[in-house]
Specification:
Elements: E1 10-12, H1 14-20, E2 27-31, H2 35-40, E3 47-48, H3 55-62, E4 68-72, H4 78-87, E5 93-97, H5 100-106, E6 115-117, H6 119-125, E7 132-136, H7 140-145, E8 147-148, E9 152-153, H8 162-165, E10 173-177, H9 183-193, E11 199-202, H10 205-209, E12 217-218
Parallel strand pairs: 1-5, 2-3, 2-4, 4-5, 6-11, 7-9, 7-10, 10-11
Antiparallel strand pairs: 8-12
C-alpha cells in the first residue's frame, strides 16, 4: 500500500524511516498493532497505542504535538489510524511505514521486545527478588479499591511527564500491570523510551492478579472518600 492516503501523509520505506529516525529528537514512531504483536517485537523507541483499545484517548493524552509522527500499523489499518489522529486534531502525522513491522524485520532492522509474564510468575518472584517493584499504572481510584502490597501507583496518564517516571530506579526489576493488559504495554513502551529495560508486563493485569494465590492484596478505602 504505497499510495498517499491524505495530502502530505506518505508511505515511508524502511530506508526512508531509518533516515528520518536519525533525527530522534523530532520523530516518534507510534505502533498501533495489537498488544500481543507489539510485545513480541517492535521498532526500538516506538510508543505503543493499540487501535484495539482507547486509541484516540491515549493518543491525545500522551503523544507530543511537537514531534513528527510515523505510524506502524497492522496491514490495512493505515488509513483508519491516520484518519483518527487527524480528526483528533493532530497535524503532525507524517505517514506510515509501508509494509509495517514485517517490512522492517525483513530489512534486518533492529528489534526490541517486552517480556510478558503471568500473575503466577509474579507470585513466584516476589519472595526472592529484593529489587522487584510492582508498578500499578491504573487510576488512583482503581488502585485504592485493591492492589498488590507495596505496589507503586504510577498512573499511565502521569507518565507523559518524564519527571514522574524518574521516581523509578533503573536498577529495579519493574513488573507492570493495569486492569487487563492494554495500559501496561503503553506504559512499558514509554519506560523503554526513557531507558528502563528491566521490566516485565503482567498479562491479564489486575483481573488475573487478584485471583492468584501467593500475592498479598491490600485496599486503601480512605483514598476513596
Amino acid at each position: 500500500m504505497s499510495e498517499m492516503l491524505y495530502p502530505h501523509r506518505r508511505a515511508f520505506t524502511v530506508r526512508q524511516l531509518k533516515e528520518l529516525l536519525k533525527d530522534n529528537e523530532h520523530t516518534v514512531i507510534v505502533d498501533t498493532r495489537s498488544v500481543a504483536a507489539f510485545t513480541e517485537g517492535f521498532i526500538p523507541g516506538s510508543v505503543f497505542i493499540g487501535l484495539e483499545g482507547n486509541f484516540v484517548e491515549w493518543a491525545v493524552n500522551l503523544l507530543p504535538t511537537s514531534k513528527t509522527i510515523v505510524l506502524v500499523t497492522s496491514t490495512g489499518k493505515e488509513k483508519e489510524c491516520i484518519e483518527l489522529l487527524i480528526n483528533a486534531g493532530f497535524k503532525n502525522v507524517a505517514g506510515y511505514l509501508d509494509g509495517g513491522f514485517e517490512a522492517w524485520k525483513d530489512a534486518d532492522g533492529a528489534v526490541d521486545l517486552i517480556i510478558d509474564i503471568d500473575a503466577g510468575e509474579l507470585a513466584m518472584d516476589i519472595p526472592f527478588d529484593e529489587n522487584l517493584v510492582v508498578v500499578d499504572v491504573r487510576r488512583p481510584v482503581e488502585y485504592a479499591e485493591g492492589h498488590v502490597q507495596d505496589a507503586l501507583n504510577l498512573p499511565l496518564i502521569d507518565m507523559k511527564d518524564p519527571g514522574n517516571i524518574a521516581r523509578l530506579n533503573e536498577k529495579d526489576n519493574l513488573y507492570l500491570h493495569c486492569a487487563r493488559g492494554y495500559r501496561s504495554v503503553i506504559a512499558a513502551s514509554l519506560l523503554k523510551l526513557q531507558g528502563y529495560n528491566n521490566l516485565r508486563n503482567i498479562t491479564g493485569g489486575w483481573e488475573s492478579i487478584k485471583h492468584t494465590k501467593g500475592i498479598t492484596i491490600v485496599k486503601d478505602p480512605g483514598a476513596l472518600n
